[in-house]
Every structure is written in structure tokens, then in C-alpha cells.
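Is PBG placement plausible here? Inputs below.
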Amino acid sequence: MYPLRRNRRLRTNESIRSLVRETILSPKDFLVPLFVTEGKGIKEEIASMPDYYRLSLDLLEAEVKELWKMGLHAVLLFVKVPDNLKDNKGTEALNEDGLMQRAIKTVKNACPGMLVMTDVAMDPYSSYGHDGIVENGQILNDETSDFLAEMSVSHALAGADIVAPSDMMDGRILSIREALEDEGLIHTGIMSYSAKYASAFYGPFRDALDSAPVDVKDVPKDKKTYQMDYANRFEALKETEMDVDEGADIVMVKPGLCYLDIVREIRNEVDVPVAVYQVSGEYAMVKAAAEKGWLDHDAVMMEQLTAIKRAGANIIASYFAKDAVKLLG
Ligand code: PBG
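Reply from A.M.:
I modeled the complex. C-alpha cells:
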């Protein structure tokens, strides 16, 4: 007797393995998160995110030109707001000449073809580090939604192609869609962070933007009343289906690796593109282990990114985008 099927035949060497490979990463899979800060000539490394930087607008321009040449044609913008511009209502977010609005224009001027997505959330602008307006120890839902709609219009008027609300308020996709339509901004898309979990993996990001919830009386210490409980699965489907019904063009699962079961399930359920955000803490873990010599950085990075795509991601937001594309060659 011999084994009826010898599966190892198709693994004999790299030529046959690459012939039968089911999932292949391409530069076109990636969305590159970029952190923007005020000033000139500034490139500040984020302490908990080695090799990742906050850039001032002049260096942002150079960065997007480089990304474009590498075949990376979509960016997701975040801004670090100085403390003196923060308040409970996120007022600065609507400033026509604010950092985000200028960053959008900078990218579009440097690289007209670059797809510009913007993070729509109050936390970098909030004196309390929350994604919503805080009142009597609560995060107000509908007032926040209305505000996010105004913020989205402001980004769209500055030139954003797609706005990406990352707050998890109920009904905000509908509010944003209505506000955009009312302004005639019918081509501006919405990528909804639809299944966003209350995750400890966002720590390094909150360092990058100085946006962690503050420890003040009557202010919630965490985001668990709006971001999802990581124990839940049906809830992710419900959130995502509702966002599609309200007008989301793209939905997102976040974080990545711990949630690939959710990614697969959502990919099977909805008929819009599914994005996955491999978040800051996932990036930091790989960097830290690699620095210690405990893991092979490039091998682990490619394994994780490929797994995210295999699980069903059509778009991968990742701090590894440049590193991965360099390896793809
Ligand atoms: C803000 C926002 C967060 C991230 C993206 N948008 C942080 C948070 O919700 O606290 C996290 C991204 C990352 O960790 O890489 N609304």
C-alpha cells in the first residue's frame, strides 16, 4: 500500500509551491496609515512603534511621493493635535485650515492620483481623549454623530476621497452619508470602522497621537461603551450589516490577527469590500520580538499579512506596508 494522495508532491520546491499558491500579496492590497504633526522638517520616531514616524507636512509630501513610486496608492491620514487646541467638543476638527485639512491638500498636490482616506474621530481633538462628546460621565451618541458628519464634510471639501469614521457611535454612517449628499459631495466614499473592538492593541497608536482617554473624574477611563466587546461575534455581523445598510462603501474589522474569524465571517456575509486594520500593537509586538532576536521580522510580517488576506481582507491597513512591498520586489 501507498498513500492514495501524496500532498507533498505539490510542495516539492518553490516553483511548484508558487504555482499552486492561493493567496498572493500585492502593493495594491495596502492602505498606508500616516501620522502628521505641525512644524517643518519634523520626523519623530514613535517610541512604541520603532521605524514609524510622525511627519510634518513638508516631509509628508516627500513620503507620499515615495509611496506612489513603490506602487502604494492609498493612504489613511491621522493628525497629532497640540494640547492647546483640544476641547471636549473637538472644535478644532472643523477648522478649514486645520492640520488634517492641510494634510489632505498636501497629499493631493504632491500626488494627485493618491487615494486619500481620513480618520474621522474626535479623540485626537478631544481634551478627554474620547471619540465622542463627554457629558456627566457618558459619551453622547447623537450629538457626536452630527459632529462627525460635519467633520466628514470638512475633510471632503479639503479633497479627501474617502472618510473613515473610527468612533463606533450608533447611526453615524447615515448621518455622514446624509451630510455629504446635502453638500453635493456624492462621490466621497465612506469606509466604516464597522467592527471595531475595544482592544488593548491600540496602545502605541495612542502614544503616537497623544490621544489616550485621560484619568479625570467623571470621564470614562476606557472606550468600552462604544467600541465592541472582544468576546462577541454576532455583534460584529450586526454592526457591519447596519453600516452597509446606512451607506458604507467599505467596511472594516479592527484589529487584525485576533479577529480573523470575524474577517472571514464578514467577508462571507456582505457584498462590499472588507478592510482589515493590523493595528499599532500588532506592529509593536513584531518589532519588539525581532529586536530581541526572538522572531524573524520579515518572515513573521509576511506570514501575518498573508493570513489577513487569506482570511478575506480586500484591503489591509498596515504599518508594514512599505516593508512588505520592498520584500515583494
Ligand atoms: C481613533 C483610532 C484609534 C485607532 C485608529 N483610529 C485608536 C482608538 O480607538 O483608541 C487605532 C489604530 C492603531 O492602533 O493602529 N478613533
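Short version: Residues 119, 121, 123, 131, 166-167, 202, 205-206, 223, 279-280 surround PBG (CB under 6 Å).
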